[in-house]
Amino acid sequence: MSKVTFRERTRYWFDNTMSKGTASLIGWLALVSVGLIVVVAALTLWLAPDEPEGVTGAGHVLWVALMHALTPSKVASDKGSIAYMTVMFAGSLGGLFIVSMLVGLLSNGLKQKVDRLRRGRSRIVESGHTVVLGWSDQVYTIVAELAKAHASQKGSVIAVLAERDKLAMEEDLREHVGDLGRTRLVCRTGRPTEPRDLALMNLASARSVVVLSPEGEDPDAHVIKILLALAKRTGIHPPVVAGLTSSRNIAAARLAGGGDVHLVDSDDTASRLIVQSSRQSGMSVVCMDLLNFDGGEVYLRTPKKTVGLTYGEALHAYQTASVIGLLRPSGVVLNPPMDTVIKEDDQVIVIAHDDSHVRLAAGKPSVDESALVTAERAPTEPERTLLLNWNGRAEQIIRYLDGYVAPGSVLEVAADHPKAGTNLAGLRNLTVNVKDCDTTDRYALESLGVGLFQHVIVLSDDRFKPHHSDTRTLMTLLQLRDMQSALGEHYSIVSEMHDENNRTLAEVTEADDIVISDTVIGLLLAQLAENRHLADVFGYLFDSRGSEIYPRPAGSYVKTGTQVTFSTVVEAARRRGETAIGYRSAQSRNLPPHYGIVLNPAKAEPLVLNQQDSVIVLAER
């Protein structure tokens, strides 16, 4: 191999210097400018030593040369000998090239800087902000709910990091979410799996971090990789909430994220909500109200004046909040036995419209003894449920349903999915039958004898894209509703959908409950980002063990058609070992957004419940 020459070394050094960016180029341009000015001044002193007129020395000549280099048009006003004019013209011509190159370099440098800012590559300097890592449809729900939660806080910030253009993210969020009030939105472009990009988010000063499960194949692997990147960071680690799509990946994600991470199993949560909604009409609306920041929210209160009271007595302790359970050192318990004594190390779990609105009641509750009704609970009987369509969470839904129903219950699965009815061994209470059926076909649906079932569950078929799957679900719901009207049949209908925008269209079908799985998970992630201690509360609510939410006939608690206070309803439920948290008006059951459900009414609020109305309680089955 030949030896490297001096020319090659010089050229290599020059190339490396030129590649260092705008600053290096301007440095070379400045050096060339100095050389040009010195040469022009030297030639002027040699060829025309007495020019221009009034020159006082070499310094003055250097100044004249500098002005001609920076302002080439100055040569038009020069006077003197041919030698002087020639030198000044050459200097001005060289200056013209130098100034042109300088303007071009500055323009290009500024453009690169603006492009960098546009791409969102600068490090944020916020503190106490909420960081969202990744992008999916859930981001709209999370940002909207966090903005509501921070509505009374000045200077709150939500920072989003995703592999999308910064301006595109901001535009999409403005279009879907609208006005964020006092909350500022900061978007950055980058890969949440890269530590260098995570450094842009100033995580050491963040309040909490939300990791989204992206759309596409194997999203949980992406979430686990983000958790690994977060765990490998040095410095302070803020609390992390992450959403997973499959229960099978929980163990791996927990190992990757460590103790600072709370994991939300999307499939598990959605499956539990679908099952409970199928059995209790309005359950999805109640859960949505509890999960969002619009109406009743769940709070933890330190029991100062309630220490020593029993749980039953504490039900009347708050005028503007509904007590639903206790957070004890041993864990969460909702609707505990009424004689449970509240201790100093317990926290009272309440539903309230705002944390600042939780006020103790003054005096004894206003209870109308004459309006109280004592009714026996109806015994559980075998049920018939129809499941239309099939997807990846159908097996989980059936197993949860098996834990609710009485022995001897029947589940009919109607779908043309190749995996329909598979992997269902070990069921205790359900007998499962599978039929091949196109659930959008009217004649196929009529052949199922839908009127023989008490409950109908319509799942989203995972063989199709979400938008098309929602369209097929709407077709099925319309067919079922028309069949009900034509045949006079009565059965509850619960449907699963992907897109929140399709809820308005689905309301035309008057389905009893519509579960938007992505919206539910987004709401839950937003709640846990604000208060991780609520994870056990919502986990308890969605579990088949212990107390759950039930809408029960109002006539089982108070005399219908009679004006009573909500305190009377609470007392009636207390005597049954239940916790009343609201009611549902049958007259408004089809009116969005609450569909007749009222959570946490004031204890002194007068109301008249009719025979078709329901009292919403926490109770054992």
DSSP helical segment count:
19
- Sheet/helix structural class: alpha/beta
Identify the overall geometry: elongated
Strand numbers in spatial order across the main sheet: 3-2-1-4-5-6
Biggest pleated sheet: 6 strands, parallel
Transmembrane segments: 21-48, 54-70, 82-106
Protein name: Lipoprotein
Pfam family, one: Castor_Poll_mid
Subcellular location: Endomembrane system
Strands, helices and their partners?
Elements: H1 6-18, H2 22-47, H3 58-70, H4 82-119, E1 130-133, H5 138-149, E2 157-162, H6 166-177, E3 184-189, H7 195-198, E4 208-211, H8 219-231, E5 240-244, H9 250-257, E6 261-265, H10 266-279, H11 283-291, E7 297-301, H12 311-314, E8 322-328, E9 331-334, E10 347-352, E11 384-388, H13 394-404, E12 409-414, E13 430-435, H14 442-446, E14 455-458, H15 466-487, E15 492-497, H16 503-506, E16 513-516, H17 517-530, H18 535-541, E17 548-553, E18 563-565, H19 566-574, E19 579-584, E20 597-599, E21 606-608, E22 614-619
Parallel strand pairs: 1-2, 1-4, 2-3, 4-5, 5-6, 11-12, 11-14, 12-13, 14-15, 15-16
Antiparallel strand pairs: 7-10, 8-9, 8-10, 17-22, 18-21, 19-20, 19-22
Helix pairs in contact: 2-3, 2-4, 3-4, 5-17, 8-9, 10-13, 10-17
Structural key phrases:
621 residues; six-stranded parallel β-sheet; transmembrane; 38% helix; membrane; 19 helices; single chain
Q: Your description of this structure?
A:
By secondary structure, this protein is an alpha/beta fold. Helix content is 38%, strand content 18%. The chain contains 19 helices and 22 strands. The strands form five sheets. Strands 3-2-1-4-5-6 form a six-stranded parallel beta sheet, with helices on both faces. Strands 13-12-11-14-15-16 form a six-stranded parallel beta sheet. A four-stranded antiparallel beta sheet has the order 7-10-8-9. Helix 2 (22-47) runs antiparallel to helix 4 and helix 3 (58-70) crosses helix 4.
